[in-house]
Every structure is written in C-alpha cells, then in structure tokens.
Amino acid sequence: MSNVPFFSSRWVSGPDNVTEAHDGSLPKGFRAAGGAFGVKPDGAKDVALIVSDSAETTSAARFSRSGAQSAPVLHSRHESKLWELRAVVVNSGNANAATGQRGLEDAAAMSAAAAVAADIDAHQVAVASTGVIGVPLPIARITSGITALGSELRADGAADFAEAIRTTDAFPKAVSLDVALEAGTVRISIQAKGAGMISPNFATLLVFIQTDAALEADEADLLLSVCIKRSFERISVDGQLSTSDTIVLQASGASGVRIEPKTADEQLFGEALDAALRQIALLVARDGEGARRVGRVVVKGGDQHLCERVAHAVGDSPLVKTALYGADPNWGRIIQAVGAALPGASPLNVDISIEDIVVCVNGSYIEHDEQALAEAVKRDEVEYEVVLPGDGAEAERYFSDLGHEYVTINAEYTT
Amino acid sequence: MSNVPFFSSRWVSGPDNVTEAHDGSLPKGFRAAGGAFGVKPDGAKDVALIVSDSAETTSAARFSRSGAQSAPVLHSRHESKLWELRAVVVNSGNANAATGQRGLEDAAAMSAAAAVAADIDAHQVAVASTGVIGVPLPIARITSGITALGSELRADGAADFAEAIRTTDAFPKAVSLDVALEAGTVRISIQAKGAGMISPNFATLLVFIQTDAALEADEADLLLSVCIKRSFERISVDGQLSTSDTIVLQASGASGVRIEPKTADEQLFGEALDAALRQIALLVARDGEGARRVGRVVVKGGDQHLCERVAHAVGDSPLVKTALYGADPNWGRIIQAVGAALPGASPLNVDISIEDIVVCVNGSYIEHDEQALAEAVKRDEVEYEVVLPGDGAEAERYFSDLGHEYVTINAEYTT
User: Could you tell me which of A325, A278, A305, A311 has the C-alpha nearest to residue A384?
Assistant: First the structure.
C-alpha cells in the first residue's frame, strides 16, 4: 500500500491541506500495541489496545443497529462514557456475540484489564470484538494479553494495532494524515477492518480514529455523525448488518490546536475527516471479500426518500453485483432493481446512464455505443446514474461486486 | 422427472384425492402448442400458445408489482379482460421490457395474432414475454410463429408449450393432476418456468394453470390469491423482483363439474391447487440457478409483521444462502440476519433451532450435538426455526442457496 496514494478512488479528492504521514506515529498523546495471544487458531495477532494519555480526551462512538448486538457493543453502549473514552480494547477471532450473560461478563473483564493496563477508569474504555458468533471467548488468554500489551504501548504502535484488529481483510486499511489548519497542524490516524458487514464468521466493520486536535465532545459527535452518513452508511457489500460494528473517534487535544465550532478550521478539519472516511469506506467496499470492482450509483429525482430507496436497491441487488463482477454491460439489471424498489410506479419514467453513456431514456432503451459501454464496465470503478422524475434530491451508494471469491469465502470456509 | 413423484418435497403433501396424470392431456377444453421461431439464438422453442375452446371460460391473473413492468404486463393489465381470458401467448428469449411505445405495440401485435389464431377477441388474450431486457422484439418472427401455432394446437400440446416458455430452467416444472371431487373428477394442469425472479437476462416467473372445472371468475380470483400467498410469495431466490412475472389461471368448465363457493368440493379443489402451487414454488426455489439445497425458515412469535420481516431477512440473506450451499452449520448467520431485521431490539430473546437441534436459547448459544448438526445441514431440504417473544403469529419462507453456479450464470453469461 505504501506506493499507492491513500486517496486512490476517483470519487474522493484529498483536500489540498492534507498530506499523508509516513513516519508511523499516531497523533500526539496516543500509544497503541497489538499482539498474538491465541484467540485466532493460526497464531496471528488478535488482541489490540490503544490509549490516549491525555486526561482531556474527548470522544464519540457509533455502533451497529442490529437487534442482536454483541456483548462488547452492549457493554460499551451501557457501561462506557462514550464522550470521554481514553482507551479502546479489541480482540479479533471471536465476536463475543450470542454469548449471553457470560459474554457480558467477558466484555467487562476486557474493559477492566484495559483500565488497569492504561491506568484509567473502566468507564473510559470501549470494547470491541470481531470474529465467530456464538462461541465463548477464551477470556483468560485475552485479559493476560491485554495486561502484556499495557507495557508495550508505543507512539508507533498503530501498525501492530491495525494488524491485530483484522480478520479476513485482503489488505490493510489504515492511514495517518497531517491536516494544516489556520491554528496549526493536527494529525488524524485511522485503523479500520472489515469487508463491510459481510464476513460470515469474521463479521464486522471496526473503525478507530484518533486526532491530537482539541475538540469538544459534542463537536466530535457531530463531525462523526455527518462523516459516517457520507461514508460507511453509503456502502453496500452484501446488504448485511453485523452484530458488532463499532466506530470510535478520540481527540486527545495534545497538539494544542483547538478546533472551535463554526470556524474555518472546523470546516477544514471536517473536510479532511470526511475525505478520509469516504476513502476508507471505499477500501472496505473494494475489499468486499474477493471484490474485483466497486460500483457507484447516483440517483437523482424529486423525492429524497425514493432516491435513497432506489440507490439501496441497485447497490444491494445481487444481479447488479454479479454484472459488475463479470463486467457485463447488461443495464436491464439496473432497471429491474429500480422497478423492484418502486412498486406500482409503472410505467416508469427513468433515465439510466453507465459511465456517462446513456442507455435508457423514459424507461425505454436507447441506441448507444455498445463497444464503448463494454469497455467502460471493465474499469476498477464503474459509475451508474439513475434519474427519476423531478429534481432537487440525490442519493449515492457505493457497492462491491459479487463473485466466486464471495461464495468460496462464505460457503467453503468450514466453521 | 417422470420417475420422481411430483409431490417430492417433505414440506408438501399431495392430498389423498389427487393423482398425477401421465396421459399428456390438458384439462378438457384446452389445446396448446409451442415452437421455435428464432427469438432464442440457439434455435430452441420460443413461442407458445394455449387456448380454451370454451366460451364459458373464466380466469384470474396476477403480475409482478415492479415499477418497471414489462410491455406485455402493462398490456395484459390494461387491455385484457383478466376474468375471461381464453388464450395466453408467450415468447421466451426476450422480455419486451424497457422497450417504450414500440414494446406496447409489439405486445398488442402478439395479442392480435393470438386472437386471430384462436378465433377469439383480442381482449381475451393475455401476453407474456421472458428474456433479455431492453431489446426490441423480433416481432415479425413472433407473430408469424403465433399464426403457425394456431394450426398446431393440440390437447396434448402442454409439453411443447412448457418447453417453449422456459429459459435457464435446469428442469421442467409442469404437471397434470386429477382431482376427485364429490361432483366428479377435474383436471388441473400447470406449466411454469423460472428460477424465481432471479435470472439476469432471462428473468421472470411464469405460471400457467388450466382446469376443466367450472369456476366463477370471482372464485377463481380468490383461490389464486390465497394459493399464491402460500406459495410464490413465500419463496426467495435472490430477493429480486422481475419486470415480467405473470401467473394466469383459466377454468374452461368443460368437465361439466361445477365448483360452487363454500362447498366441500371448493375446499378439496383449493387444497389440491394449494399443494400443487406450493410444490411448483419449491421446484422454482430448487432450480434457483444452480441451487443445491432449499431451506425453509419458520418464524414464530407474537407479532405477525415482525415474523414476516425476520423470515424475509433470513431467506434473503446471502450469508445464510452461502451457508446453505456450503452445508455450513454456522447458525451465527441466522442470528445476524434476525438482528439485522430487528434494529433496536437488543438484547434479543430469540431461540433458534436447525432441523430440531436447538442451537440458541434467549439469544445465547447452547451446547448441542455438533456432529448431528453438521450431518443435518447436508440434506436436500434444511429447516430452520426462529422463535421470537410472544406467540400466535407465524411466518414461513422457502429459499434457495447461493453458490458458484449463481455467480457463473449471472456474471459470466455475456449478453
């Protein structure tokens, strides 16, 4: 990844005031570590800890809306002060989901061990687990691992942390960015894992974001909320919702640069965070278990709700996804998905274009350059536009394809 | 198929008064034909016509609810007298969908040609097309084909008709059943095609049902409605809705046996139709483009709407479908799908069993015989039970698996 610029998608522009940092350091005030403690059978790293040393740390967090939330999600939601999280402790290889009272006790034990290791209050720890569902954690290994990591925390520990939170990811999803503001330069680091709420035994999207900017907790919450809506809430791998998705933003303030609400600096910081999370989300979609290509559908029309519904229907359609995988220019699958999302709307006045080639006007095929279309759908990123009647509303959705690797990973991996 | 009894699923029992007819004849009063007229590039049969010779014929029909209905669906809905359809004309190889005004004119031309061939009014013809979307019909070939079929209509033409309506189906889905009623014996014949609203270029579920019983049109409509709810509306192949799904029931009355409303005979006839359509629906699910296995999920609880929502979520989940394909006993995918369908319900009190082996109680794993479970999920038909809090409500869903053949057919077939 080091030779590829982080902002690699044509759908995301890295802001001018943002530069990629390659020194391996977390934002000021943060230390992290990750190690192998026997949760994963293959001996890979599986326990991770990240700590802010600043007592002024603010934070914000978001979790899966699943009705079957994992024990660590339930624990963090109910026991943690999500606005002043100093530490995040994670294990991979086991999701601690569908594990009942024992699961809640194990999540509490992870939190307690991290609190001791970081010398903070247990309410300032968020817990996350990712992996197989319905199997109790090997909790003794994990808590002794957390204790061991306490003495290994380092400012350049992000790579180990990022490695230890991963499961089936085909490539790492982590970055450090320096963001030049009027008040000075701050750093944003992100470590993410996930092939988008998708993987069977190793489900879950985990995203951890640190900055050394000083942010009010309310402001951190607002920024995170806005950026998630434009990034992770717009991707579809297989339309599935994990029991365990967790996103945490921590701001240590250790840079001395304070971001005040409604200032130019807040705007600049927000744009940087937005671009970074959109790019991470696209990496997650691209990693969608064997994905060859990523699609983007933009739906325009007069009704925001209908535009959203159609964008979801297109992005989640297995027929559209297999066409993307196979570089099949068959736009009939797009209109099929649009029609399915709008029952009773027949006859439907819809225009469809693929990579700016208009293939359908007012619900009917139109002559187009089929050779050019066949070439266009072979690209790494393929863009579809659907125009419904009316204007003023627009929805966007990024989606991975559906190919043999998805079936192989999900069907042939034996639990 | 001739060696396999029609009622092959353990989830459907053939009623005692129903016997399979193997004489090849349609119900009295019906004649059918099918032939190859160059719509399909491979020279297979692609135009089909079925006609009732009785002026007393009643009928009922149902269509895809897609907002992008195909031209023949729009034509049949708006131009045909759906309660007295004498003929159904079908082409395969081209769906005549997303074809605008030209498409509507072509559908009308098919209807007109069939009316001439059958010597009936054009309003008594239903039109159906299945195949590629967004390409104009080769209408001249089709109308001259319809004319040719007019002189080939035969009482034993059901097999040719059934063959000509098929596209990617791996096996035929047709049957003739004799149903013994108090007033006499009537015949029900069914010709269906479809791998369930699934296939990319050759989408669509088509089901044509004939009987020589005499039925009021209202009664035919009611029976069809009830039976579809219990059959085709309970199957999921890939959760997609075709532009073109069409189901037509015709009753010629030529047996002389009249089925009066609210009689024992109506009950017997309804049970036979119900069993037949459920079995056809299961054949469609089993044929779900390369499916190895069919799953059935039964969801019980206190809220009918939530039970339906959970049954859909489980049956449509690509993670559940790939597990079914791979005979993976990973029930975590079931609870993941249940949780995704019930946002905000955490912690969720749900019990899950697979083939009567209880794997989850009150949202938490429970010790079970893993060896027995591993064997149970290898069966051709696998049953899952999900129990939500409360009682009195129940929903059921049949679903096909998701395997390599699905990807191959949908991604690697070049349009």
Answer: A311
